[in-house]
User: Fold these one by one.
Assistant:
Number 1:
Amino acid sequence: MATRFIFLSFCLLFSSTLTISNAKIFPTFPSSRITPEKLSSLISSSKDSQGLYKTKYHTQILDHFNYNPQSYQTFQQRYLINDTHWGGSKNNAPIFVYTGNEGDIEWFAQNTGFMYDVAPKFKALLVFIEHRYYGKSMPYGGNKEIAYKNASTTGYLSSTQALADYASLIIDLKKNLTATDSPVVVFGGSYGGMLAAWFRLKYPHVAIGALASSAPILNFDNIVSPYSFSNIITQDFRSVSENCYKVIKGSWKQIEETAKKPGGLEKLQKAFRISIDDPKTGNDVFAKLYGAASVYYNYSGTAKCFDLNGDSDPHGLSEWGWQACTEMIMLTGGDNKDSIFEESEEDYDARARYCKEAYGVDPRPNWITTEFGGHKIGLVLKRFASNIIFFNGLRDPWSGGGVLKNISKTVLALVEKEGAHHVDLRFSTKEDPQWLKDVRRREVEIIGKWISQYFQDLAQ
Ligand SMILES: *[C@@H]1O[C@H](CO)[C@@H](O)[C@H](O)[C@H]1NC(C)=O
Ligand SMILES: *[C@@H]1O[C@H](CO)[C@@H](O)[C@H](O)[C@H]1NC(C)=O
Ligand SMILES: *[C@@H]1O[C@H](CO)[C@@H](O)[C@H](O)[C@H]1NC(C)=O
Ligand SMILES: *[C@@H]1O[C@H](CO)[C@@H](O)[C@H](O)[C@H]1NC(C)=O
Ligand SMILES: *[C@@H]1O[C@H](CO)[C@@H](O)[C@H](O)[C@H]1NC(C)=O
């Protein structure tokens, strides 16, 4: 656990270095240290894809929300299916759907072991749906270059379109399986967890409940403190080693001052290269940062160099930039004086300028809360929502934007001090600590209640 967690933090650190250091050396997306999924990639234990699922494609409508002729276009949406334990449509056996994140669905399907682990108990059909504009679910005939060419083609990439894809695919699949009465439960982690929770709120007639793991749905529109993200990272570091915290905190000034001096950039690059050549000799921060980045960028052990702009992202997450520039305005870049990073304010205007330049769009920072809510969430969901589990591990910097309090008898927060980014959804292992086993047991119990309630209602 401890090593995983250090990697996790180092990765964050690494990308933060890129953010604070001169953008000319390491051009990177401003004020967005890391996408939610980049974090989780570091702590995942994946299963071989072989034999876990079958791959299918479904013809999906490009634009669910208007009748403008160009909206009638379609694309092939990929989904993965596992019916090994399904009890079948005659028994109205449940369907568990993973609402895909910002990346290749195979990667999520291989890492969401919880669903495979519980499938036998519920006799559930497992379905993992890929998010549009990621992996193989690329509009414009699967041509990624055209899909990401300009705002006219990328404009159909949004969370609302993705949710509508999931709803129409699920309804169509149930019809094909003659399983219209089978209850559907949606699952997701990180951005996928946000989608799962929102799906339950927007499509209660399609899903009877949602397990939203590490879903930072409150990380919008100043609902939570702009410092929460780095405060948690800082806390994580301090709990491991106060000394480590001090060394790293002290290093930013040094890096920045070096960079400002004549020849400083070259010196920094050289320092980087030295630690790259032999990470063991560079007994400095660079070497450690490099080692940490390797975990993510060189997980295959075959990378020749790391493309930190994201173009060679091994998990296909690089397209997040468009979403982060339109509606996913999750500000995590503020650092107060205790932060392990340099004290700074999030520069929203810089991000907006970047977005205009890179994508020709103006961000809509209030759209997510307009569409899905978030402000005074307890007050709202208490009277309106049901059957949602929000899991959060407090070591996860994204937990600052999570739902951490119980809202009602059926909108529940499971919070674990020791937990990391959606650990509950991973394959169970012998080394799992007791608290993690307990979390999963409670999740199974709660989902079991939703399903039996549904069958009772159906019988009436
Ligand atoms: C489906 O999932 C089960 C575990 O729930 C696993 O044993 C099986 O190998 C998987 N594969 C396929 C193709 O159904
Ligand atoms: C965007 O790219 C598409 C596909 O190449 C092209 O047809 C269209 O004219 C472009 N739109 C703009 C506004 O440049
Ligand atoms: C349902 O069946 C039709 C006809 O075979 C097919 O075109 C469609 O893609 C299927 N739906 C799903 C979700 O696979
Ligand atoms: C990636 O890992 C392999 C195996 O450990 C190593 O030989 C290679 O140099 C690494 N690539 C980079 C860019 O560090
Ligand atoms: C919410 O309620 C559940 C079930 O009663 C309980 O297990 C859990 O600890 C509560 N969560 C919080 C954050 O108090």
Note: Strands lie at 54-61, 74-82, 95-99, 125-129, 184-189, 209-213, 388-393, 411-416.
Number 2:
Amino acid sequence: MPRPIQARIDLAAMRHNLEAARRRAAGRRIWAVIKANAYGHGIERAVLGFGAADGLALIDFEEARRARRAGWNGPLLMLEGLFAPEDIAACRELDLTAVVHSEAQLRMFEAAPPGPAVGVYIKSNTGMNRLGFEPREVAAVHARLARLPSVRVDGLSMHFANSDRVDAAAGPVSMNEQLQRFDAACRGLDAPRCISNSAALFLHPPLAEDWVRPGIALYGATPDSARPAESLGLRPAMTLATELIAVRTVAAGEAVGYGSRFVAQRATRIGVVACGYADGYPRHAPDGTPVAVGGTVVPMAGRVSMDMITVDLADAPDATVGTPVELWGAQVPIDRVAQLAGTVGYELMCALAPRVPVVAVG
Ligand SMILES: *Cc1c(COP(=O)(O)O)cnc(C)c1O
């Protein structure tokens, strides 16, 4: 018997979330972001779930190849562009659009061997201060790219630092400030614009842009921990499910697990769940973190170990060995687990361990 743990990817939920994004986008086209193995959901499953997107955006060239092999014939945007000059050959072979964010990448295109033109997005740094050209440089970058026969300028992009704040004026670098810098960068340039991530798309009024780039929302998690995904009309795409593999009653005063973090106040039935941090469950989840056992939400009791967690079954008296358990999904929002563990849903999805079998449903 294989260990009972499994991640189920709900393709119907992915289609539903893309539709929700489509409504928010109000006419803007959608790059569905599928980097990091589609936030842990699998490139091939993302191609199925997001088949109605206008394009798919990612980072890794091998994942782009997988998307093509899975049958995706539409646009593919490489969000970090080229890592080395030879990536231009992959752009041509796989028909990829590449972000250009640095002088080094610009020189790679200027030195490219002759061949079919590669579509590029010019990325502007408007306050995130990771990637991109300064706004005052963008016109010159555009001019250098526009004269290359091996390049076609397809878009202008930027990325927000604080779009998860509901007040658009908030933060040391507000959304409004970034938008003003972007406007300055793009002045006089005639190319489609692409700005919004999930937070900008779902939490703010529509922006003047041609394309949006949501990721997390399409997987049914929230871009802002203060706004539950459900309240944004989103459905969880990933369910991490397993079973109880043991049940025991511990006496009052007995402790459970490493460090004896949970101490029973009274005789307590403890369920042992076949999932631990080696499966991607966060080790920092505190006692009380919700776990659904046979449809009832019960509290974690004791430290997460490598292959197991332990829960207090006081409210699930019928639970026994083999009872189904949901770590996250429709009953336990991934965002809630993440918040209690001091992280975000993004990290939990991406950290799903390779040893967990993944199946598509819906
Ligand atoms: C990851 C990423 C996105 C998607 O962000 P979400 O918060 O998941 O919606 C959009 N744009 C860029 C450049 C990204 O790297």
Note: The longest helix spans residues 11-25.
Number 3:
Amino acid sequence: MANPKDDMWRRLIRPDIQRLKAYHVPASAGLIKLDAMENPYPWPEELKAAWLQRLGTVGINRYPDPQATALKERLRVALGVPTGAELLLGNGSDELIQILLMALAKPGAVVLAPVPTFVMYEMIATFVGMKFVGVPLTGEFALDRDAMLKGISAHEPAVIFLAYPNNPTGNLFDANDIAAIIEAAPGLVVVDEAYHAFAQASFMDRLGTRDNLLVMRTLSKQGLAGLRLGLLAGNAAGLAELDKVRLPYNINSLTQASADFALAHADAFDAQCARLRAERESLYRALSALPGIHVWPSRANFLLFRTHTRPAGDVYAGLKGAGVLIKNLDPSGGALKGCLRVTVGAPEENRAFLAALEKLL
Ligand SMILES: *Cc1c(COP(=O)(O)O)cnc(C)c1O
């Protein structure tokens, strides 16, 4: 670089950070947005009006409640957190992963996860200087129990992340495999239930049986992605340590009030998620019927599929040209070569996606 200032930045920034690529969010203006597992349904008008009224009562000149006491109580009841388990709230579950790994990042400490999985586990491990070990899933994206147990004894990870269901594959891992991993792990196991609303399977009721188990949830995928609210449930003494790393006002007042309001009207969101689960099954059947497409069954609000007759990159670009944005996983390589991921949208969005896709095949 000619500019001496650039040399200064190169000298200062950690080499592992310089090697990273920034998390890329593509522009989506004017497109049917089926790339990020968002809930497509707006709030009913009368609910929106009541919510805005509630926000009007928030004293925005004051700092938020640093412990979000009222919201935590609401979450406990709404999510069925067992008594004895404690809660830690994050600005999205992404922040909880960051808080956890900052606290665990001793020199040489390892983060382990099956791969392919949610990319933030590895990204944040790198941010905090931890080593990430990925253990390949089987051909059908199940946990390879033997390989996981071997990886655990070889690397003694400080934490293992298991997305349940997994992103981007959509499947729910076998609960007995997970139990065996929790049993064998010398460190923590985070069961990441970001898609709980669509899978309706959980390890929440096993908290308390094993002190190394943490259950993570988020309100994002069920319809509140803009709020940024995630939570970690688990051992009280352990979470008290993690809480020292949390910035005091990480959950802002508008999020606290909005989440509390939304949980008090959970039936509206539950109904939307039920519609999306039904839509997922229709979309799965329609994709299965298309020639040259292999689609995997999903317990989340998205479907992973592979295109056999045309390169995935061409299909992705063709869909975008037709006004539909999905996620191209082909560049991730490995088991995801040739794969695309589509979020389950509203019926008319799914129809537009299917029509555009059919034309491209
Ligand atoms: C989307 C996603 C998250 C992140 O959710 P936020 O709460 O919005 O940060 C966490 N885990 C998995 C597996 C996800 O797919």
Note: DSSP finds 15 helices and 13 strands in the chain.
Number 4:
Amino acid sequence: MIFTTLLSLLVAVVTAAASPLQPQQLEVITPRITSPTESDCWAPGSIQNVTWDTSRIPPAFVNNTGMIMLARPETTYDKNGNPRMTENLNYTNPLATRFPIGTGHQTVQIPIDTPPNNGYVIVLFGDSGNCSPKFKIRK
Ligand SMILES: *[C@@H]1O[C@H](CO)[C@@H](O)[C@H](O)[C@H]1NC(C)=O
Ligand SMILES: *[C@@H]1O[C@H](CO)[C@@H](O)[C@H](O)[C@H]1NC(C)=O
Ligand SMILES: *[C@@H]1O[C@H](CO)[C@@H](O)[C@H](O)[C@H]1NC(C)=O
């Protein structure tokens, strides 16, 4: 499932960080993404403002750095017809890195070569991983 994978990626990211890990830093907080919303359509190449709700981020976490990625979750079926969720998380090309999650917003540029699709999500990693509703990228 998407959140399991996101969480394991998150743990990998946190583990890779230079500072020693304190147990309470593993607490998972999930800031709600307020932009994009389901009705949004962003053009490839455009600069957009990703925003999220910071009201539940504990004060001690506000300067922790975040990362934003584009993903396109889809359900595929194996030869027996069993559904399988694939995130298609573009982890090779994060849209933004190293911004403080406490700010609640970050501008990103949608890569010009992003294939048009109605099912993209923005994934925000901080000491949490959370994704936006699906939105469209097309001209
Ligand atoms: C992004 O949105 C936030 C919150 O609404 C706002 O404070 C900020 O100025 C916006 N940034 C840009 C570049 O539009
Ligand atoms: C976060 O950074 C700001 C600006 O550098 C600083 O004033 C504040 O004390 C920091 N907060 C924490 C919890 O580290
Ligand atoms: C990740 O994003 C870059 C920039 O848009 C793109 O060139 C690359 O094909 C993407 N990779 C995947 C797996 O979608």
Note: The helical segments are 2-16.
